[in-house]
Amino acid sequence: EVQLVESGGGLVQAGGSLRLSCAASGLTFDDYAINWFRQAPGKEREGVSCISASDLSTYYADSVKGRFTISSDNAKNTVYLQMNSLKPEDTGVYYCAVEPRWCRGAENDYWGQGTQVTVSS
Q1: Is residue 77 packed enough to be buried (19+ CB in 10 Å), middle (13-18) or exposed (0-12)?
Q2: What does the DSSP 8-state code read for residue 21?
Q3: Is residue 119 pLDDT above 90, yes or no?
Q4: How many CA atoms lie within 13 A of 99 on its CB side?
Q5: According to the model, what pLDDT value does residue 82 have?
Q6: Separation in Å, CA 49 to CA 1, 29, 57, 121
Q7: What's the CA gap between 40 and 29, in Å, rounded?
Q8: Got the DSSP string for 42-109?
């Protein structure tokens, strides 16, 4: 059974930092690219960042470039999203999901349950 488990969310003041983790099991990690999405209340889900586990190529949405860093520990089947200089508009539920091999915006095969990030002003 494939499982993606997010952790690390919480409440932080604007300008602060959080590190999210996505631990994957039940799949061949190197065969996937791992995405972070977020969804704020009343808004559409937004792709935030992606990393390919095979070649560690990355993608960032313009809204988070220079503030967020995605990384992968393939030995632990875990992807991290370091979020710095957080803004209130970063508030939302953050989900990790996996698509086949590369960050191409393909349909994601599996999703985690999400972790709440709240940034206060």
Answers
A1: buried
A2: E
A3: yes
A4: 15
A5: 98
A6: 25, 17, 11, 24
A7: 28
A8: TS--EEEEEEETTT--EEE-TTTTTTEEEEEEGGGTEEEEEE-S--GGG-EEEEEEEEESS-S-PPPS
Q: pLDDT per residue over 83-98, tens digit each? A: 999 999 999 999 999 9
- Neighbour-count burial of 18, counting CB atoms closer than 10 A to its CB (0-12 exposed, 13-18 middle, 19+ buried): buried
Say if residue 96 is exposed, middle or buried (CB neighbours under 10 Å; 0-12, 13-18, 19+): buried
Residue-wise pLDDT tens digits, 29-85 = 999 999 999 999 899 999 999 999 999 999 999 999 999 999 999 999 999 999 999
User: Which of 68, 62, 61 lies closest to 85 in space, CA to CA?
Assistant: 68
Cα 111–chain centre separation:
11
Confidence of residue 106 (pLDDT cuts 50, 70, 90): confident
